[in-house]
């Protein structure tokens, strides 16, 4: 694996530097508040953070009273960091498609923030998550949206396809319906994604010396190419953002 792939440990560490927190998703804390702002805060609720990475989002939700959080991720290095940095959250190493094997409880809220696009087997993941959901559990998927044409004109950097599996409206609707979920809504967030990625591109430029100090010129070049590239696809109208809400049927 290239050392600075988007979802590598080194990549997440550099993104945390640029984003001023342990987040690897668009919009950082503003996005978290946008996704969960209407969710009642209850300390007895159990939330599952799928693809939790370095743990910033899970800790943010727990500390602000949305509930108890379990984070699952297959990146052991990121989880080791999260365990040391955020001991108030339960961290589980494992593949989301085998979630019932690793998780000992069921959840009332399940979420994926810029994780769904990276899953090769999206339908299998939805099926596995349904098995760890209580009746009435809500699922929220905050992710990139293929607005039409992105599959034919994808973003590739150094042979790596960036944003390999964005949400496709028809496909996610079908996959939810066939894995035990009932689609509630799809909220477009493309303008927000444009704004967030424009801000991120500026911050990468502003923090160039720190990025080079920690990762070298290769890391800076990679980050600039990837995130300017994502912004370009958004501005072309090929890529955007969406918040999908579904309930356990």
Could you list some keywords that capture this structure?
Rossmann fold, 249 residues, globular, seven-stranded mixed β-sheet, 42% helix, two-stranded antiparallel ribbon, alpha/beta, single chain, 10 helices
Structure description:
By secondary structure, the protein is of the alpha/beta class. 42% of the residues lie in helices and 24% in strands. Strands 3-2-1-4-5-9-8 form a 7-stranded mixed sheet, with helices on both faces. Strands 6-7 form a two-stranded antiparallel ribbon. The protein is globular and about 50 Å long. The N and C termini lie far apart (39 Å). The model has no long low-confidence stretch (mean pLDDT 95).
Topology of helices and strands:
Blueprint: H1 9-19, H2 28-36, E1 46-50, H3 56-63, E2 68-73, H4 76-85, E3 90-93, H5 99-102, E4 107-113, H6 122-131, E5 133-146, E6 155-157, E7 160-162, H7 169-177, E8 181-188, H8 190-206, H9 208-215, H10 217-235, E9 239-248
Parallel strand pairs: 1-2, 1-4, 2-3, 4-5
Antiparallel strand pairs: 5-9, 6-7, 8-9
């Amino acid at each position: 694996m290239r050392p600075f792939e988007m979802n590598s440990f080194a990549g997440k560490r550099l993104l945390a530097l640029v984003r001023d927190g342990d987040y690897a998703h668009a919009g950082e804390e503003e996005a978290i508040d946008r996704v969960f702002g209407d969710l009642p805060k209850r300390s007895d609720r159990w939330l599952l953070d799928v693809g939790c990475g370095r743990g910033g989002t899970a800790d943010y939700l727990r500390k602000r009273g949305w509930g108890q959080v379990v984070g699952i991720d297959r990146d052991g290095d990121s989880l080791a960091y999260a365990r040391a940095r955020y001991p108030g959250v339960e961290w589980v190493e494992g593949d989301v498609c085998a979630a019932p094997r690793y998780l000992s409880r069921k959840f009332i809220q399940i979420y994926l923030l810029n994780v769904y696009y990276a899953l090769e087997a999206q339908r299998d993941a939805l099926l596995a998550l349904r098995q760890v959901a209580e009746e009435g559990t809500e699922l929220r998927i905050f992710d990139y949206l293929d607005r039409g044409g992105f599959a034919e004109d994808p973003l590739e950097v150094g042979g790596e396809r960036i944003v390999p599996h964005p949400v496709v409206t028809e496909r996610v609707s079908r996959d939810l319906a066939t894995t035990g979920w009932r689609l509630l809504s799809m909220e477009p967030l493309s303008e927000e994604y444009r704004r967030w990625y424009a801000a991120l591109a500026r911050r990468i430029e502003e923090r160039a010396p720190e990025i080079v100090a920690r990762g070298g010129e290769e890391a800076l070049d990679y980050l600039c190419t990837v995130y300017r590239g994502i912004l370009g696809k958004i501005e072309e109208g090929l890529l955007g953002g969406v918040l999908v809400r579904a309930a356990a049927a």
